[in-house]
Amino acid sequence: MIKEIYDHLKAKNLNPYFPGQHRGECEERFCVIKENTQVHYFNTNKLGYKLVDIIIFVPANSYIQIEPYIKQIKAAMKELKWLRKTGNETPVITDDDKKAYTMSIEYQIIKKLEG
Q1: Using CA atoms, how far apart are residues 39 and 66, in angstroms rounded to an integer?
Q2: How confident is the model at residue 115 (pLDDT cuts 50, 70, 90)?
Q3: Which of 9, 21, 61, 85 is the most buried (most CB within 10 A)?
Q4: How far apart are CA 3 and CA 33, in angstroms?
Q5: Residues 6 or more apart in contact with residue 105 via CB below 8 angstroms
Q6: Where are the beta strands (DSSP E) in the chain?
Q7: What pLDDT shows up at residue 44?
Q8: What pLDDT is recorded for position 1?
Q9: Which domains does the chain have, with CATH numbers?
Q10: 47 has pLDDT over 90
Q11: Cα(33)–Cα(61) distance, rounded to whole angstroms?
């Protein structure tokens, strides 16, 4: 399902990457799709969800780019009906290594647990 998120964001020209793919400083906006914890629902080990973080980066010389980019990411993710926004968002902070502003938005993929 991570590949489907990547393909969808790529089709919307939102410049997605997987962790570790982007190299160097942030010269244009991009986002990183990062898988996170898988959790089972209470009283069952057959149904649960996987958390996914969308980590957003915009160049440090253009703070005003972050809000429109966040809105575009959220709109694109809303089109994926099998995703649910958790409501967890980090504040915007600076990333000195990337020379960027960054923040993340958390989503859930509701799924049948395997194994």
Answers
A1: 30
A2: low
A3: 9
A4: 9
A5: 53, 54, 56, 70, 73, 74, 77, 85, 88, 89
A6: 16-17, 30-40, 47-59, 83-89, 93-95, 100-112
A7: 67
A8: 82
A9: 2-112 (3.30.2000.10)
A10: no
A11: 23
Name which of 64, 80, 87, 61 is nearest 16 in CA terms.
80
Rounded Cα gap, residues 52 and 31, in angstroms: 12
Tokens of 20: 């570790």
pTM (2 decimals)?
0.89
**Alpha carbon of 80 to those of 8, 24, 84: distances in Å?**
8, 30, 9
Instruction: Return the residue matching tokens 């089709």.
Output: 11
pLDDT of 13 strictly over 80:
yes
For 62, list phi and psi in degrees, rounded to 5.
-145, 70
Q: Which value, to the nearest 10 degrees, does the dihedral of the CA atoms of residues 75, 81, 85, 86 take? A: 180
